[in-house]
Amino acid sequence: MNYKDFLEISGQFSLGGLITEQSHPHTVGLSELAKSDLKSGIQRMKDLDMHVFDVLMNKLDQLEEMNKMVLDTWSNGNRVFICGCGSTGRLALTLETLYRQITKQTNVISFMAGGDVAIIASVEDFEDHPEFGAQQLNELGFKEGDLLISSTEGGETPWVIGAVQEASKIGKPFFLYCNPDEVLTVQRSQDVFNNPDIYKINLTVGHQAITGSTRMQCSTVLTYAIGLAILCQENFTDYATNSIKNVRQYYESIDAFEFISKFIELEADCYLKKEYVFYRSKPNIAINILTDTTERCPTFSLHPFESILDNPINPSWSYFVMDVDQEVYKNSLDAWEQLLYGRQPRALSSNYWHKYQHKVGLEKLLSHDISQDQIERRIKYAEGNHYQFKIIYDQNNLEMSWEFLSPNLERIHFSKIKAINDVLGQNIVLKCLINIHSTLLMGRIGRYQSNIMIYVRPTNNKLIDRAIRYVLYLLKQNNILNENITYALVCENLFEEIKTLVYGESIVLKTFERVKKLFLL
Predict the structure, then answer these.
(1) Average pLDDT over the chain, rounded to whole?
(2) Can you provide one Gene Ontology molecular function annotated for this UniProt record (predicted)?
(3) Which residues, 6+ apart, have CB-to-CB distance to 66 below 8 Å?
(4) For the segment 129-167, what is each residue's pLDDT rounded down to a tens digit?
(5) H-helix or E-strand containing 199?
(6) Are residues 373 and 479 in the same domain?
(7) Would you say residue 486 lies in a domain?
(8) What pTM was estimated for this model as a whole?
């Protein structure tokens, strides 16, 4: 695709009017707070998380209907499918894993755009293909009587819409989203709204802490909503009300500054000194931690977790491995099965995906080794110090601990708080805390300005539009924007910069500088 091709379809992806794409006034200046006032930065992000609980309480009637549909599906011997793309795909996999952990059942099937390998790094351009969503659904054996629960933070993701429209041909799937109906004017969203065979649940939580970073509050509300629906066996309103109330009180009671601020400083300092961090946790929260570390790549333009097939290997700043007390995970497949709580990873292997096999096949997935072997291997090829960050949820003693270790495995910092006897609720709170942690540490090293995602990677049409809008924003902020600087002109220059863009560079800043030179000569 060149810039002219994009401009022809740009109207379908001009998403600046969406609430999820706009700046939140409460987090303006967040990048500066990350450096000079962590306490305020943490509290402002936590304030936004608290709104999630209010939104859920106001949607209990619709969530109860979804819960009834889930229970009816199972009572008839059928399965519940959960799908999403990018962040919502990772939450789908997280929910199946938590469901397997809590119930020991296998009648929930999750899938995301690009298959399970996309939990490491989203497969470029998959999001833009509705037919891919339909194909993945059918390949998993979705049949009449099964139920699909789909989620898309923005409410306009083509891949998700393709899957839910396909499911509506033989059933009545759910479509969950986080923008007001009136701003979702693109035709694909309207087609969903006008389909009487699709149940719609609007979970708008407002602007995100970082513009467009729907991995935070949007993903949290969707995870919690679907989690409640698939885990409640009876008396949904009482069950959900008690859960939301207890989790909210627990999260409010945590002194987040006291608990996580030192870890933010330590990890940020590692990256500023070009050092590395291994994240480690046990299966009960592993997928939650993995998700946060991998989602930093598209948000902050970081190298994704490297593959052992890469040549040359460009190591990511952080890497996740399973934490074990003994040598039980002997290879990559073992570790992946433990991550997914006993199931084999789902790769895309049919002939339909032939030209994508190097991106979505099982060999590619397993080349992202999250077993113990990767520690020794990575220390050899990634020159520099390697720290370890262990996050543990002890369900027996109801404690959650974070521990930062030196390259010699000596404790640098340790923090522990009480946990709750609620696996879903504890994972929701952990998600909020680790999202705050990663966002603020990236602010300390300059990976966003104020609360604007200037390091967005333009890997699909939505993100290309976002990058163009942010360039225009910076031009306006710097009093450079004039009638001659149009969306089309910025688009043309952005596509020129994409040709030489490498990981770690900001396409927004590069394009901004390029356009600035054109008009300030």
Answers:
(1) 96
(2) fructose-6-phosphate binding
(3) 149, 174, 199, 201, 226, 229
(4) 999 999 999 999 999 999 999 999 999 999 999 999 999
(5) strand 199-202
(6) no
(7) yes
(8) 0.96
